[in-house]
């Protein structure tokens, strides 16, 4: 999916020669210390940062020069770090905005999304800004799911969220995996969760992939070497 990707901000190169693949139905975990370029990689996949070199393809289509909108319509959903919702809009209006990314003609929030996040159904007329941090994160994930993506990019969805909602979000990721309808690329720092749910992992360090493998192979030694602070 990604080959030899180089990208950065202005003159500063952050990603160097990144190669990565997410197979259909897989949950792939992207790990690495703070500031190594995980968010930059997610934004590059989404076309929010222009690549200086390399190629990106998805589902057999070359997306190297595609706009963010086209990538979304090709089935890539993105949940940015820090739950970027619209606080002045209602929960339902936030969710309807997710339909913009859809290639099919749906005009209302699909029931399956409310089934995954019942709290959002109960609160659909409330303003996004009135929700707790964890609920806003659920809203942000639900908004990406509204368009029915085939690949979901999740950037640290559990960061700074209360434990009960972390569990709910974990369940949602588990149910996505069990449905085999979608693949997930997840930036996650929790080793326990990463090893319990991911099929495969990549470790990024200073903008390059320094380790990868099936998550059952993620050893203490690698964690110490690449992830410990
Ligand atoms: N808009 C920007 N302009 C210039 N440099 C940036 C910008 N955003 C991030 N950077 C730099 O790019 C590098 C990688 O940042 P990035 O956010 O991708 O890391 P990360 O691995 O996601 O970190 P974290 O775990 O803290 O979110 C950092 O050195 C950061 O300072």
Automatic annotation (TrEMBL):
Signal peptide (from-to): none
The record's Gene3D superfamilies line, in alphabetical order, gives: P-loop containing nucleotide triphosphate hydrolases
A molecular function (GO) term? ATP binding
Q: Where are the transmembrane segments?
A: none
Task: Output the SMART domains linked to this UniProt entry.
Answer: AAA (SM00382)
The answer to keyword Ligase applying to this record is: no
Instruction: Keywords in alphabetical order, please.
Output: Amino-acid transport, ATP-binding, Nucleotide-binding, Transport
The cross-references to NCBIfam families, in alphabetical order and at most eight, read: urea_trans_UrtE
State the protein's name: High-affinity branched-chain amino acid transport ATP-binding protein LivF
Q: Which organism is it from?
A: Paenibacillus konkukensis
């Amino acid at each position: 999916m990604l080959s030899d990707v180089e990208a950065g901000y202005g003159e500063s190169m952050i990603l160097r020669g990144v190669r990565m693949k997410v197979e259909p139905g897989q949950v792939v975990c992207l790990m690495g210390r703070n500031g190594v370029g995980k968010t930059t990689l997610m934004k590059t996949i989404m076309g929010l940062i222009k690549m200086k070199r390399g190629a990106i393809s998805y589902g057999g289509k070359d997306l190297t020069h595609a706009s963010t909108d086209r990538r979304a319509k090709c089935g890539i959903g993105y949940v940015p770090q820090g739950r970027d919702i619209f606080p002045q809009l209602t929960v339902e209006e936030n969710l309807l905005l997710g339909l913009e990314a859809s290639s099919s003609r749906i005009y209302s929030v699909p029931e399956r999304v409310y089934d995954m996040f019942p709290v959002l159904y109960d609160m659909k007329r409330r303003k996004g800004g009135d929700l707790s941090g964890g609920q806003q994160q659920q809203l942000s994930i639900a908004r990406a799911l509204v368009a029915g993506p085939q690949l979901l990019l999740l950037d640290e969805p559990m960061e700074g969220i209360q434990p009960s909602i972390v569990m709910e979000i974990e369940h949602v990721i588990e149910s996505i995996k069990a449905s085999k309808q979608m693949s997930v690329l997840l930036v996650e720092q929790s080793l326990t969760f990463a090893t319990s749910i991911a099929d495969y992992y990549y470790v990024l360090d200073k903008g390059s992939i320094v380790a990868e493998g099936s998550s059952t192979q993620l050893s203490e030694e690698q964690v110490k070497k690449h992830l410990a602070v």
